[in-house]
Specification:
The chain is of the alpha+beta class. It has 2 domains: 29-205, Immunoglobulin-like, CATH 2.60.40; 208-238. The chain is 27% helix and 32% strand. The protein is built from 5 helices and 13 strands. The chain has helices at residues 3-21, 55-58, 78-86, 163-168, 210-235, and strands at residues 32-38, 43-51, 63-70, 74-75, 91-94, 110-115, 117-118, 125-134, 145-150, 154-158, 172-176, 184-190, 198-203.
Length: 238
């Protein structure tokens, strides 16, 4: 082997090591996140799919969590999530108290910790389904709809080794270990390809229709009350 050939092998190894461990974000495997909202009306399903790419090739037994910040116009039902968790459909941890009956203008934003599940059909892929609900908004003067914007989430990964942190030069963040274990664990904040914000359209009433709506509601309520009273009087036993 000639001297240039003998020199090329060590140089190749050095360049590879520098690219893998000293190249910053450029050396980090590309992570993709796609989001989709299904169904119509006030009850939707937020589907998130992550593909970690080459990360899984370097680490084993990784867990993926999505940190969502729901605006005041959206909420999740804790009882519905608990039922889905019992059937192993989804795992969502909520640390804030949620009033499912409150309208948008009396609510605050809250944070969700969504623990994604691995996709058996795709290596290094994870997915999560979260049912979200839209709150009622105040009537408007002119517009018949309002916009609710769901910002881009934060993607956290936790593995048994620190190789991911060394490869990508990312920072750690403390977050609950799991739905059942709320103690803080070290998660790696993973950057991913930018995704557009999720924008939901919400129908709202017009203020000038307030008198008509109230009048019709009162009349229908009185009519139904009279019909119920008449049925009880005719068929009831006193």
């Amino acid at each position: 082997m000639s001297f240039p050939e003998r020199l090329s092998l060590p140089l190749t190894i050095i360049v590879f090591c520098l690219a893998a461990f000293g190249g910053g974000e450029a050396a980090c495997p590309e992570v993709t996140l796609t989001r989709e909202v299904l169904n119509d009306g006030f009850h939707r399903d937020l589907i998130s799919k992550m593909e970690l790419g080459a990360i899984i090739e370097h680490t084993a037994d990784c867990r993926v969590m999505i940190k969502e910040r729901l605006p005041s116009g959206l909420y999740v039902d804790p009882y519905q999530l608990a039922s889905m968790q019992q059937h192993n459909v989804t795992e969502v941890l909520i640390l804030d108290s949620i009033d499912v009956e409150a309208p948008e203008y009396l609510s605050m934003e809250h944070t969700l910790f969504v623990y994604a599940k691995p996709d058996p059909k795709c290596a290094g892929c994870f997915s999560a389904v979260v049912p979200i609900h839209i709150r009622y908004h105040q009537p408007s003067e002119e517009r018949e709809e309002a916009l609710v914007i769901l910002p881009s989430p934060q993607l956290l990964v936790r593995c048994k080794t620190d190789l991911l942190l060394e490869m990508c030069h990312m920072h750690l963040e403390d977050a609950p270990c799991s739905v059942r274990d709320k103690t803080a664990c070290h998660w790696t904040d993973v950057t991913f390809k930018p995704v557009p914000e999720v924008v939901l359209q919400v129908p709202v009433g017009l203020k000038q229709h307030g008198f008509m709506v109230c009048t019709v509601t009162i009349l229908v309520t009185l009519f139904c009350s009279v019909m119920i009273f008449a049925a009880v009087w005719k068929h009831g036993q006193f």
